[in-house]
Design goal:
The protein is mainly α. It has helices at about 1-5, 10-30, 45-65, 75-95, 115-130, 140-145, 145-160, 165-180, 185-205, 205-210, 210-220, 235-245, 270-305, 305-330, 350-375, and strands at about 95, 100-105, 110. Helix 3 runs parallel beside helix 15 (about 350-375) and helix 5 runs antiparallel to helix 14 (about 305-330). Belongs to the SEDS family. FtsW subfamily.
Length: about 400
């Protein structure tokens, strides 16, 4: 039994995540050799190495525990409570970083509750909508109730204010809702309700949404070289790094922009350092690995016959794809900067840990899909032969 289970694991996913994480560790070391912080040159490398070890433990746990156990109320209720309490506690003991109240300090370490809120939203919506499949098109019973939790999470993250993470949570939830099986009429109705709620909320929070810092991000996005030394400083230096790398790159460790020119080179802008040092080949490797995780997750979701497992796989792959696009789009000027880490590559404990758990769950879903397809079919009982209805040859004895 155990042998068959271990044979069913998707080792391609495990290999890709391992390669991407180790590559990220190397690039974190290279990108953080010189920083604006007064720390040793290997400070962030050592911390990221420790983060990887912790993430590995949770990845293995998530890959071994059957994902169907997360569908029970005994799991969902504590998860929902912990996620909401974690976001609420920020307003009491939270630490401000990058103009957002996003971090809770735990001794020498910090944790970002919003990162784990992404995963809790995926699990909760997947579980609830999978249970409502028989009446998924009844708006009052099937569509609306799970969205109250989503609305509270979105609001708590948005008022930190962290609109980048709030937007990612909203898009992830949207991918699950669209894949849940509800009809187009309910989806359109839902979009209209959300728009009606966003409009007054935007007016209430206009001072936060249209703050000078955020307006400067829009200005730098449209033309970073118009104010290269202030609002456009990060994006302009990201352009310099990407342009300097060319096809072959300057060589590992040879980046110039990381020498105090590009802030947060080991976090939000690590792809710029990869491009500068390793050229198109380094960037291509990252894109290939991330693209494989996304497409593989969608493929697993399409193959899974269990609605809960299918929505989980789609939600997790959507999270990886959306967050990758937001990070890469910000560093290359495709979209405004939001301060989102690149999955498995950027420095960061909270992001790495929740991504490891998420992919561990995806590996577990894939294992069940493969196991049921390969082994359960062979164990199906053969159909009982139907008795023939043809008349039997009956011999009658006649008494003499």
């Amino acid at each position: 039994m155990l042998k068959k289970i271990f044979k069913s694991y998707d080792y391609s996913l495990i290999i890709v995540v391992t390669l991407l994480s180790l590559f990220g560790l190397v690039m974190v070391y290279s990108a953080s050799l010189v920083t604006r912080y007064e720390v040793p040159s290997d400070f962030f490398y050592e911390k990221q190495k420790f983060n990887l070890l912790i993430a590995l433990v949770f990845f293995i746990i998530a890959a071994l525990i059957p994902y169907k156990a997360m569908k029970s109320t005994k799991f969902l209720l504590p998860m929902v409570v912990i996620s909401l309490v974690g976001l609420a506690v920020l307003f009491i003991v939270g630490k401000v970083a990058n103009n957002a109240l996003s971090w809770i300090e735990l001794g020498a370490r910090s944790i970002q509750p919003a990162e784990f809120a992404k995963l809790s939203v995926i699990i909760y919506l997947s579980a609830v909508y999978s249970k409502k499949q028989s009446y998924i098109n009844e708006f009052d019973r099937g569509v609306a109730p799970p969205l109250f939790y989503l609305a509270i999470v979105f609001l708590l993250v948005a008022i930190q204010p962290d609109f980048g993470t709030a937007g990612i949570i909203f898009l992830i939830a949207g991918s699950i809702i669209v894949s849940s099986g509800m009809n187009l009429k309910n989806i359109i109705k839902l979009v209209m309700i959300i728009m009606c709620l966003i409009a007054p909320a935007s007016l209430i929070m206009k001072d936060e949404i249209f703050s000078e810092t955020r307006l400067n991000r829009l200005t730098s996005y449209s033309d970073p070289f118009a104010d290269e030394l202030k609002s456009g400083y990060q994006l302009a230096n990201s352009y310099y790094a990407i342009g300097s790398g060319g096809v072959n790159g300057l060589g590992l460790g040879q980046s110039v922009q990381k020498l105090g020119y590009l802030p947060e080179a080991h976090t939000d802008f690590i792809i710029a350092i990869i491009s500068e040092e390793l050229g198109i080949f380094g960037v291509g490797f990252v894109l290939l690995c991330l693209g494989y995780l996304v497409l593989r997750g969608i493929y697993i979701g399409l193959r899974c016959k269990d609605p809960f497992g299918s929505l989980l796989a789609i939600g997790i792959s959507s999270m990886i794809g959306i967050q990758s696009f937001v990070n890469l789009g910000g560093a290359t000027g495709v979209i405004p900067l939001t301060g989102v880490p690149l999955p498995f590559v950027s420095y960061g404990g909270s992001s790495l840990l929740q991504m490891a758990i998420a992919v561990g769950i995806l590996v577990n879903v894939s294992m069940f899909v493969h196991y049921e397809e390969k082994y359960k079919k062979t164990k199906e009982p053969k159909p009982t032969p139907v008795p023939s209805r043809e008349p039997r040859n009956t011999v009658y004895r006649v008494k003499s």
